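ok so heres the complex, two chains, lmk if somethin looks off
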Amino acid sequence: MANGVGIRVNERWWIVKAAPETPLLYVLSGELQLNGPRFGCGLAQCGSCSVLIDGVETRSCVTPLSAIGSRAVTSLEGLPVWYARQRKLPKPPVLTPVQQAFIDEQAIQCGYCYNGMTIKACELLSKTAQPSEAEIRSAMNGHLCRCGSYPRILKAIQRASQAAVGERTEEHRQ
Amino acid sequence: MKPVTEAIRFPRRDLLKAGGALLIGFAIRDAARAQEPEGVAVALGPDQPDPSRLDTWIAIHADNTATIFIGFVELGQGCSTALLQLAAEELDLDMSQVKSIRLESHTMPNQGGTVASASIARGGPRIRSAAAEARQALLKMASQKLDTPVKRLTVSRGVVSVASDPKKSVTYGALVGGKPFHLPYTGTAPLKSWREYKIVGARIPRRDMPDKAAGKYVHMQHVRIPGMLHGRVVRPRGQGAYGDGAPVLKVEEESIADIPGARVIRKRDFIGVLSVNEWDAVRAARQLKVTWDQPAALPGTAGLHQQMRGARTTDRMVLNNGNVTAAFDAAAHVVSQTYQGPYQSHAPFGPNCALADVKPDTALVMCSTQNIYDTRRKIAQVLGLALEKITIRYYEGSGTYGRSCYDDASQAAAILSQAAGQPVRVQFMRWDENGWDNFGPAQLADIRAGIDAAGKIVAYEYHGWQHNWSITETSQQLALGTRAAESPGPGSQEVSPFNLGAMYAIPNMRLVNHRVDGIRYLKGANLRSPLDVSFSFASEQTIDELAFLAGMDPYEFRQRNIRDERWLGVLNAVAQTAGWTPRRPADRSDRRRADTRLVNGRGIALGTHTSSYAAAVADIEVDRETGKIVGRHMYGALDAGLCVNPGCLENQISGMLVQATSRMLKEEVTFGSTNVTSLDWNSYPILRFEECPAVTAMVVQHLDAKSSGGGEEVMGPAAAAIANALFDATGVRLREYPLTPARVLTALQRRLV
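and the predicted structre for the whole thing:
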């Protein structure tokens, strides 16, 4: 057993006890007690466990702890800070525009797929500020939802992309 | 469950303190019996509060807020918001002044499960009448306090004022002072007229949404308690025949010797592993070598319907109106076909999870059940504890759409916790959930229908073959050797008099149920709108075929044959919103001849579950080279009577349109002779983002009607509209779903020969 591997999660360094081959998901949900990444299939098929690693959406259920190194892991909990850093905002918003748009569109049903959907949408908008509908569908295609909330998620991502600058986030919060 | 009559203890005291109340206990049962509003029954179980007391339903706190005790569970459908709207409306409180508490088995009288889309229909009337009764009591107190007759008082946001002198006022909180009402609940207080509604019928944002969006919402899968162990079940990959269980021949514990933290728990054929560390439990479950006896007892996916056809059945005449035989003899045109539907899986996006803390004489089980009382009964069976020793606490899980493995996971956690003497959290792996689900049963149907020369449906006959729902959970079957048994039904387990032809005025109808014994099949249970996708697939295609034979547009044909105004309402709503234009048989043959690879089609259908009225239109595109169907736009209209929250209902309709598209085009449980083989998202594919149609959801609102179901009724018509659209696009009808590219291609090629 490795003793004390360091990983950087949500802008903080953590010393974790897990063995190096442990999938990152179990480190995040177990040792760090984070509720964003969650188990869905353990097979990288559904996107439930997604996190950003250096800004790239990654399936934490099949990513061993040893593969992280010094790269920055961002979970759902860390998205507002990550977003503020991306947009060079003086302080992080309470919610990212993507998260706020999910509320504004009442896009969530059971909410279990929401973690992966949000992580992926934030990654997409960080690369392509104004994606077309086809680009959104293509980017999101690896994330499943059992409740059938795709149409409202699509609208939410479109709404978030229209909030072109992070500063406008305040206007959307009611 | 046997009702108890002894005094009720006061289990909610602490919960109410947390809500800002000074509530000090509950009145014990007295002679006064509540009148049940609108015939809604409740059962009193062990350790549950008395339904005949007002305090059982509502508490007013000193801070002028109210707690409404809701006996139904939030499943992402929004019922926890909508039921509070009903309470706030009758109490004249703002939505910010009402809340509910986490549901536990002793916090509420048992009002049954959150099933059959009935939380608003069954739970709503009681909450409304209790809120009205509380308001009545509060006004009486205010009248004394303000020395003014009740009729001269007005209420806004829980502040009672003298109408002529608004400065003279008192709050609900001040009136009750956070103490119980100590009043019987009679169900007799007058309710507001729908003309006065301000909150009911409004698009109030869902209560659970902000926390879900912020990542703060606690799903069952997030619940952790100190000292808990992680458990996993160890079973064959994929269930065999229901009656067989999974007999263990050999367990090689040394196969996990390299995982020092993990240990094996065995109780007869139930095998689980435990570890402090979750990953160790996951890999131990994967690595443990177990040999099972796996007899080749299943017919395999390909042989399923043939086996059902030849099975010995228990038959029941569900409906027999008029003279069906004579009507068929006299009919101008008759359509007769056989249809097949597959097993489909609940496949919740997050596999089920439960956390049990079993002590020598008590147990707490946290889980995502749709019926905490039924779960308590099942936990009692595996633990050998009395019901009142067991507390079930509900946490929302991943959308389950019926009885997936939630009770199985709860029993597994309880068995493991009892064996370990420690709290145990069990989460199913994807292959456990998909492999050991209680699937929506497969169906075989023979349908025959006829019209007269004027295009009126004169005869209709439906024979359905399927098995009933399994009632023995797998964990119990394996751990105790409990015999595999099935629910006696009928409920939603047999041929439906609500969904089969019921929307049309048909004078001669016969519905016959052929119940197959499910022991040699897969486990079955209620999957959203049970059996309705199969019913509508067969029935509404038959209606379309009759329209074709009558030379009529499918919408017009339905209009002419429709039973009543409410069916007509949803049919017109969906057709008009979709911009339906008459489709004649000639159009369709032109379309078929067109030499294009991609062809478009449009279909329409009606349907329901047990109540409400639904209609759908599907616009699809068919690739004639690959056979792939893509849903382009789905329209759904639903009349569920009084819709308390149109936003929530539209979300349900929208979700149903997408889920029905998934079930019609993609979903099929596969199995060989020994095991289910569709164990993950590759082998059990569901609709993806790129395949998702645009959706238009319409609520047909009836503020003055009773609320009826809203979470299932669009499934059948949406699925059938897709099948009808395939015919519209290609001239081909499929009698078996899902409408996979292979099936479509085969049918197209057969047509060309």
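quick notes: The domain at 5-78 of chain A is CATH 3.10.20.30 (Ubiquitin-like (UB roll)). thats all i got rn
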